[in-house]
């Protein structure tokens, strides 16, 4: 049988692409450090090892990030936050995704990515404003180059695509890091975002933090795909899967993915296999849907311990350094605790401020009504 | 103007007004806005090479290039979400949803992001996006092509909702929409796409802010409040009503959000009677909101309850039956007749009686 070369069938997928297997992710997750923190070299040819400086920075940020996360969970339990969705156990993804970006790049995070934002240098109190309840997005997205944390699933991914495309059109070298969880990959907007990104060659890196649960629903009920990384192939997106608890591998893959996107070669999809050690939020009870054995097993793949073991082995850090990082993390948490314990005064009239640039006559009427109510309340005291 | 008149007016020759269709006026507004501001971009399904299924974007990709006007994948949530991102990067996207009911997949993007971004970010991120939607019926369209979806958008805080009833307004309101710092849902009545008018005066005008209704016809006995495709019905009904001796005023809202209480209430205070005309199904619709507002604000001026003429509370019917569903002149006149002219009780809703609100 001969192929009719005149038929407009698409060309076979080339394997000669920046991501070594064409669009295909690796058959197993990319790994640089095993569970014990020992270096494995299977993927060295495909991905350059991250610099020592980047790895030490990652370690410090992971320790600080975890301490922040634990502190935020405590604040939620104390009623200081309405709710907190923790990311303990996902430190390699949280910190790696931000360290791979340059200062001018943008992040498009979900509600679970508070640790990532803190590692990006955002004020933790501003990050926690959303669940503190005094405002929605507490930080300035333009100043921090970080979109509001998104609570509807996957909807911000397509914003990242339009934004990255727009930035390119404006001649700016910005890359957008679009974060999503395993559950979010079932949403239609995830697929539309991937498709648009590929069609418009938008400089976006999609990072799927596969933490195995969408609240209570396990991955097995979410997808039949062999890896969430495979979801990029159908859209023509270079895809990869990585051990999400291996900070070195996460950084190696994301460094390359960001460079790929920035160079104009289009988007990249990366699935990071990780685990949500805590419940969905402090309001959730994870014992209703998973065994503690499973959690114990993942605790043995702790991303911080792995990186620390390797950094110590390479003499890049020592006990004194580890102690000083821990001390800084404690001070950071204490500062967050103190600042979150202050009762915020919120201006009720701010309700009317940012519905439109200029309030409608109807909003002005309602504003006057609320103002009168508050004055009457004040007078009756 | 006759030839004789023209000869007499010897001073300055007045050029004959250039008549364009409403779709042509929208096309011109897009072109003028794109010429005035390099950040204005147009995209959606089939808006590029084809020029849109209604030819509204005809020739724009050719004349402005595919960077400024381009086709997207067929995914409405994607189109709207992409526009959110482009607006964040500094563009002013004018996007098209091909038909009213095909915009529903984008509803989450519109309600949760387009409408709320300014609010969520304490004013740091505004989204100057215009979402153009060919809407409503009366063109014999098959199912899912004729929905009146204005109430969904008008009920969503943070969106401006605009619908032109005249060719001139189609031009002017779209220019204003593109200039607006906030997102605008721009509803284009499909059956008016081929209506004709002049936009020369509108193109020369300076922009006004949204929220200014227009009194299309002066009257003293009844106020008809309408918008978009229903304004024409109201105007025809007003003309026909003169035969019954009723002097009918017609108010064209032009923008549903922001709503011009002032013009509507001033008219009703003058006439004492009010009928709201809308093509959309009546229950929980924009007309209900208007009726409530008028009664709240002009109760002591009212000589009769505010009545509504609306589409039936049914899914949009097949083409052969849409004439029954769509409010027509007769239904408006029947409703005007019920406005307590003889000061006798309206028995329509008494128990045992048949029928209900039109």
Q: Biggest sheet of chain B: strands, sense, closure?
A: 7 strands, mixed
How many β-strand runs of chain A? 7
CATH architecture of the largest domain in chain A: 3-Layer(aba) Sandwich
CA distance, first residue to last residue of chain B: 42 Å
Strands of chain B, count: 14
| Spans where pLDDT lies below 50 across 5 or more residues of chain B | 1-9
Secondary-structure arrangement, i.e. CATH architecture of the largest domain in chain B: 3-Layer(aba) Sandwich
Query: Within the largest sheet of chain A, what's the order of strands?
Result: 1-2-3-7-6
Q: What is the CATH topology assignment of the largest domain in chain A?
A: Rossmann fold
Instruction: Just give the CATH class of the largest domain in chain A.
Output: Alpha Beta
Q: What Rg of chain A do the Cα atoms give? A: 23 Å
Strand portion of chain B, in percent?
A: 15-25%
The helix-and-strand class of chain A reads alpha/beta
The portion of residues assigned to helices of chain B is 25-40%
């Amino acid at each position: 049988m001969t192929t009719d070369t005149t038929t407009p069938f698409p060309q076979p997928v080339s394997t000669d692409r920046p991501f070594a297997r064409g669009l295909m992710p690796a058959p197993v997750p990319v790994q640089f450090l095993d569970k014990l923190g020992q270096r494995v070299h299977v993927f060295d040819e495909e991905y350059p090892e991250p610099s020592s400086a980047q790895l030490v920075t990652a370690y410090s940020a992971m320790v600080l990030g975890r301490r922040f996360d634990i502190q935020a969970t405590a604040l939620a339990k104390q009623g200081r936050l309405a709710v907190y969705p923790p990311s303990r156990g996902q430190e390699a993804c949280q910190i790696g995704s931000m360290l791979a970006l340059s200062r001018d790049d943008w992040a498009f995070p979900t509600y679970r990515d508070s640790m990532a934002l803190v590692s990006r240098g955002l004020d933790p109190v501003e990050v926690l404003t959303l669940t503190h309840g005094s405002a929605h997005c507490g930080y300035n997205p333009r100043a921090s180059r970080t979109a509001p944390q998104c609570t509807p699933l996957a909807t911000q991914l397509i914003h990242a695509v339009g934004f990255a495309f727009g930035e390119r059109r404006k001649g700016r070298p910005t890359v957008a890091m679009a974060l999503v969880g395993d559950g979010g990959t079932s949403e239609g907007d995830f697929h539309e975002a991937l498709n648009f990104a590929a069609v418009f060659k938008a400089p976006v890196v999609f990072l799927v933090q596969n933490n195995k649960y969408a609240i209570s629903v396990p991955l097995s009920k979410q997808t039949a795909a062999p890896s969430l990384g495979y979801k990029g192939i159908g859209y023509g997106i270079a895809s990869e899967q990585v051990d999400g608890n291996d900070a070195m591998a996460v950084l190696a893959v994301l460094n390359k993915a960001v460079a790929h996107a920035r160079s104009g070669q289009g988007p990249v999809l990366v699935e990071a296999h990780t685990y949500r050690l805590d419940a969905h939020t402090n309001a959730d009870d994870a014992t209703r849907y998973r065994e503690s054995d499973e959690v114990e097993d993942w605790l043995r793949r702790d991303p911080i311990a792995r990186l620390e073991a390797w950094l110590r082995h390479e003499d890049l850090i020592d006990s004194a350094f580890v102690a000083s990082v821990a001390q800084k993390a404690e001070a950071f948490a204490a500062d967050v605790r103190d600042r979150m314990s202050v009762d915020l005064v919120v201006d009720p009239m701010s309700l009317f401020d940012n519905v439109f640039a200029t309030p409608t006559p109807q909003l002005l009427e309602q504003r006057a009504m609320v103002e009168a109510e508050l004055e009457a309340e004040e007078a009756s005291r | 103007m006759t030839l004789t008149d023209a000869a007499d007016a010897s001073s300055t020759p007045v050029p004959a007004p250039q008549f364009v269709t409403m779709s042509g006026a929208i096309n011109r507004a897009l072109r003028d806005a794109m010429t005035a501001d390099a950040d204005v971009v147009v995209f959606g399904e089939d808006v590029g090479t084809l020029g849109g299924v209604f030819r509204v974007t005809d020739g724009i990709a050719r004349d402005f290039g595919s960077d400024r006007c381009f086709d997207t994948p067929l995914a409405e949530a994607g189109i709207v979400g992409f526009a959110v991102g482009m607006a964040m990067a500094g563009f002013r996207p004018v996007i098209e949803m091909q038909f009213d009911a095909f915009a529903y997949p984008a509803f989450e993007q519109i309600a949760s992001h387009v409408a709320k971004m300014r609010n969520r970010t304490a004013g740091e991120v505004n989204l100057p996006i215009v979402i153009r939607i060919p809407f409503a019926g009366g063109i014999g369209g098959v199912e899912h092509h004729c929905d009146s979806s204005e109430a969904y958008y008008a009920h969503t805080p943070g969106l401006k909702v605009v619908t032109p009833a005249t060719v001139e307004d189609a031009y002017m309101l779209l220019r204003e929409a593109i200039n607006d710092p906030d997102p605008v849902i721009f509803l284009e009545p499909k059956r008016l796409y081929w209506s004709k008018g002049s936009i020369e005066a509108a193109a020369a005008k300076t922009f006004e802010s949204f929220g200014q209704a227009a009194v299309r016809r002066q009257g003293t006995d009844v106020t008809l409040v309408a918008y978009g495709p229903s304004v024409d019905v109201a105007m025809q009904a007003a003309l026909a009503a003169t035969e019954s001796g009723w002097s009918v005023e017609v108010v064209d809202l032009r923008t549903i959000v922001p709503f011009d209480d002032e013009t509507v209430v001033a008219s009703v205070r003058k006439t004492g009677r009010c009928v709201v005309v809308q093509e959309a199904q009546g229950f929980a619709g924009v007309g209900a909101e208007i009726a409530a507002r008028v009664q709240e604000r002009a109760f002591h001026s009212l000589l009769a309850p505010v009545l509504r003429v609306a589409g039936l509370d049914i899914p949009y019917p097949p083409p052969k039956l849409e004439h029954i569903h769509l409010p027509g002149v007769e239904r408006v006149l029947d409703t005007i007749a019920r406005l307590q002219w003889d000061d006798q009780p309206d028995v329509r809703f008494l128990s045992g009686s048949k029928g209900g609100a039109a």
